[in-house]
Amino acid sequence: MFNLFNKNKKKQDDIFPLFSKYAEHLVVFMGMQSQGNYSPIAAFEKSDGSMVGYLYIADNHAYQYDVPETLEMMKRELGGRLRRNEIRSYAIMYHSCFEYGGNEHHTPANNEGEFKSITTSLYSGNKENHIPLPYSFDQSGLNFQGFRNFTPEQNQRIFNTQPVQGKNYFEERVKMEGPSYENEAGIKIVTSNTGFIGHTWAGIFGKDNWDKGAREYFAMAAAKAQGGKSNTPSPGVTVFEMEKTDINYIALEKDGNLLSALPRIVTKRKIPSTVKEILEWENVGDLEAIVSASGRDSFMLKFLASDYAINKEKYHSQKNHDLCIAGIGFIIQASDMGTGDYKHKTKDGEEVTFSEGFCSYMPYNDLFQLGCFNIVSVLKGYRKVNFDTIQSEGGYMLTLKLINHPDQEDFFTIDVFVHEQNMKIKPEDLVSGMGIGGVIQMVGYIDS
Questions:
Q1: What Å distances lie between residue 239 and 28, 207, 225, 256, 260, CA to CA?
Q2: For 114-137, what is each residue's pLDDT tens digit?
Q3: pTM of the complete model
């Protein structure tokens, strides 16, 4: 419901004709808020009077700029176009802390409780205007309070604007990339500020109780991993590791504060590899990373490096390593793609039959950034794994072949831990030689 009845306020009739040109984009922005999207947008008026939407989109989810940074980049780019007379005007729309009778400043809102208004910053010639649209939340939902400096008729005109169904309102989309550089060793270093290993712990402790398991482990890690060994790879950084038979538990401490915790899947399977790129997690003190490499000069590796805090210098300075690569199963199920009987129809209606023993792995949607893959594999062996700490439940260590090679049986075969909760196949139905599909996260470390 819109509160359009504001009295005794000076009307900004000189602003309204220009502001109204951006009405469709404003209504689209209001709709984005109702869908939970609070990202700022912009639009500009071309020299021929047509309107163009302008939007920053993440090239991937590795790096997210905060709202003030995004607004500054938009203003720098569109302001430059305005000064060069390439456009007539532009507007930037964002959520702000503006509140009549309170904080009457158009400071960008970043934190919960700060979101009070939609601010439209309007630029034309040498003029700059900031027009607030305050809102509030109650039991009925989101309530816009209207533009105080516009007449009720002008308010109604804005709110009655209907976006054209199916129209692309953001004709110009700019990909935002995180900071990156190529170091002296020829390795590309990319910065991420969104690194997260909650999925990893869901693989270790099971999809239904990973949160409880992770909390219990963090408590143990805070107690220095119950006397586990420690390492100080750099000033202020301490790495504690609780060594077990199949899964080691690692805690990272920086300047005396527990920063993160991650698992290491213990494996003896080594792959000669060449490091190509490192996605370093800035939000974890640059102590965790996803490493991309080429295995045996032929196949792709992308894995969470459990030893990154300790071996960061090695990863940065040397390309070639023997890497111990393993996996953590998020979903593990039987697959008949490699039985020789599986038939698949392509989009063109062509029928394809996969050969017996077919193996493959491919990037898994957005989680590929975390080293996650869809797999079609052959089960070469398995054994029960019991946790001897944290909880009584356990899982299975599966030995999975991911690539067939005519001359080398274990060209790319890895050990994958899967918690029983993440198995869509009964343990008693596991048979060596059967097909196994699902989703895994690759994890690994430098052999030492």
A1: 48, 27, 10, 11, 10
A2: 999 999 999 999 999 999 999 998
A3: 0.79
CA gap 359, 423 in Å, rounded: 19
Q: Say yes or no to pLDDT of 10 above 80.
A: no
Q: Calculate the dihedral angle through the C-alpha atoms of 176, 178, 182, 186, rounding to the nearest 10 degrees.
A: -100
**177-233, pLDDT tens digit by residue?**
889 999 999 999 999 998 888 889 889 888 887 666 565 555 555 445 445 678 888
